[in-house]
Amino acid sequence: MKKTFAFIVQLIFLLIICKLGYYLANLLHLPIPGNVIGMILLFGLLQTKVIKVKWIELTSGFLVKHLAFFFIPISISLMTMGWLFIEFGLPLALTLGVSLIFGFIVSAWTVQKLSHRGEVKQHDSAHHNI
């Protein structure tokens, strides 16, 4: 019972942050979706230690564990929009390709910067006993 209550409280807390992101996007007329602003807001609050990870750990772990289920509705919707891919397929593919490459570059750059600061542990498989 206590775990269920904690789950519900954490879920409400995450939903409030998400709705706050939508509110800020609407209020400030930002071209960024509200849910993305909510995630950035949550990230900032976690980084500044205003919110502790343990306060949202139970619910966020559950949501991440079941993340694949959240893609089912959009996948079904995309099946009914074949015309969209016929009309905008090339620009979509180009956008996705550029985004993929950009994501790889930013990820690699971030790992290199963090490894120089000593925040990423290096693993050397030659020193492990098998």
UniProtKB/TrEMBL annotation:
<feature type="transmembrane region" description="Helical">
    <location>
        <begin position="30"/>
        <end position="46"/>
    </location>
</feature>
<keyword id="KW-0812">Transmembrane</keyword>
<dbReference type="GO" id="GO:0005886">
    <property type="term" value="C:plasma membrane"/>
</dbReference>
<keyword id="KW-1003">Cell membrane</keyword>
<feature type="transmembrane region" description="Helical">
    <location>
        <begin position="67"/>
        <end position="86"/>
    </location>
</feature>
<feature type="transmembrane region" description="Helical">
    <location>
        <begin position="5"/>
        <end position="24"/>
    </location>
</feature>
<keyword id="KW-1133">Transmembrane helix</keyword>
<keyword id="KW-0472">Membrane</keyword>
<dbReference type="InterPro" id="IPR005538">
    <property type="entry name" value="LrgA/CidA"/>
</dbReference>
<feature type="transmembrane region" description="Helical">
    <location>
        <begin position="92"/>
        <end position="111"/>
    </location>
</feature>
<dbReference type="Pfam" id="PF03788">
    <property type="entry name" value="LrgA"/>
</dbReference>
<protein>
    <submittedName>
        <fullName>CidA/LrgA family protein</fullName>
    </submittedName>
</protein>
